[in-house]
Design a protein that fits this description.
The chain is an alpha+beta fold. The chain contains 7 helices and 14 strands. Strands 5-4-3-6-7 form a 5-stranded mixed beta sheet.
C-alpha cells in the first residue's frame, strides 16, 4: 500500500516538478532489462545496431497512460518499423508500479485494464535494483516518452504526436533510418496527372509497402513500375522499399 501511495503521489505532484526531464541531448544511460515474456533487452545493443529507440515510461494504474496506450500510436510505429516491419526502430515500455505484475493482464484493482491485448511492444516490469532507471531518466510523470538516437542522445517526445511524426522525429537522428547511399539510387514519386505511384527500378526491389501518416498500410497490389493510387486521399504517405542492401523509406505527397 505504501508503494502504491507513493506512485499516486508522483502522479499528483508532476505539475510541481521543477525539472520534468533530463536535458535534450543528454547521453542515455544503458540498461539491460527483461520483459514480462522473459526476453532481455539491452539499450546500447539496439543503438549500436543503428536503431532508434523509443522508451515509454508508464504505470498500469495511470488513466492517461491507458488512453495513450489505446491510441495505438506506438503500436503502429512498432508494427511498421519494429522487428516485424522495417526493423529501423525499437520501442520499449517500462512500468513504474512496484509488486504489481498481474496488473499487466488486467488483474487486481490497481490497473486500467489488460495491457497485453492488441499490444506487441515489449513491456518491462521494473523491480528492485533496476528501478534506478527511473532516476536515470528523471521520470517525474507518466506517460513519458524519450527518443534515443544511435549516437545515444536523448530527446523528450510529446505524447500528442502521431505515428508519422514519431517516424519523422526518428529520421532526424544523424545517420539513421534512410540507407542514404542506397536511397539515392531509388526514386518513388507521385504522378498527379495519371494518379499513379511511379517506382523506378522495380526489378531491383524485393518488396514495397505504403503507409498513411497514421501508420495504416495501403494495399497497392503487385509491385510494378506504376501503381494506381487514384482512390487515396491527399496527404503525406511513406513508401517502404526492401532491397538487397536493406530497407529504404521514402516520403511522398499526394496532392490531387
Amino acid at each position: 500500500m505504501k508503494n502504491r501511495l507513493a506512485s499516486i503521489l508522483l502522479t499528483l505532484l508532476v505539475s510541481f516538478s521543477t525539472q520534468a526531464q533530463i536535458p535534450n541531448g543528454s547521453i542515455a544511460t544503458d540498461f539491460t532489462l527483461t520483459d514480462i515474456y522473459g526476453t532481455p533487452h539491452n539499450l546500447y545493443q539496439y543503438l549500436d545496431e543503428g536503431k532508434v529507440v523509443y522508451l515509454k515510461f508508464f504505470a498500469c494504474h495511470c488513466p492517461s497512460c491507458w488512453a495513450y496506450h489505446n491510441s495505438g500510436t506506438l503500436e503502429n510505429l512498432y508494427q511498421n518499423y519494429g522487428p516485424e516491419g522495417s526493423a529501423q526502430i525499437q520501442v520499449l515500455m517500462l512500468e513504474n508500479d512496484e509488486f504489481n505484475a498481474d496488473a499487466f493482464y488486467g488483474l487486481g484493482g490497481y490497473t486500467q485494464g489488460d495491457w497485453t491485448l492488441g499490444n506487441s511492444i515489449p513491456m518491462i516490469d521494473v523491480e528492485g535494483a533496476d528501478r534506478t532507471i527511473f532516476t536515470d531518466y528523471n521520470m517525474t510523470y507518466y506517460p513519458m516518452v524519450y527518443k534515443v538516437c544511435p549516437d545515444k542522445t536523448t530527446t523528450l517526445i510529446s505524447t500528442s504526436y502521431n505515428t508519422s511524426q514519431l517516424y519523422q522525429f526518428a529520421d532526424e537522428c544523424p545517420g539513421t533510418l534512410g540507407l542514404e547511399e542506397e536511397a539515392a539510387s531509388f526514386d518513388v514519386f507521385v504522378d498527379n496527372v495519371s494518379l499513379e505511384l511511379v517506382v523506378e527500378q522495380p526489378a531491383a526491389i524485393k518488396s514495397l509497402r505504403m503507409f498513411s501518416a497514421s501508420g495504416q498500410e495501403i494495399q497497392l497490389g503487385n509491385l510494378a513500375e506504376r501503381l494506381d493510387i487514384s482512390k487515396l486521399d491527399g496527404g503525406v504517405y511513406f513508401v517502404q522499399l526492401e532491397t538487397e542492401a536493406g530497407v529504404v523509406v521514402k516520403k511522398v505527397f499526394i496532392s490531387f
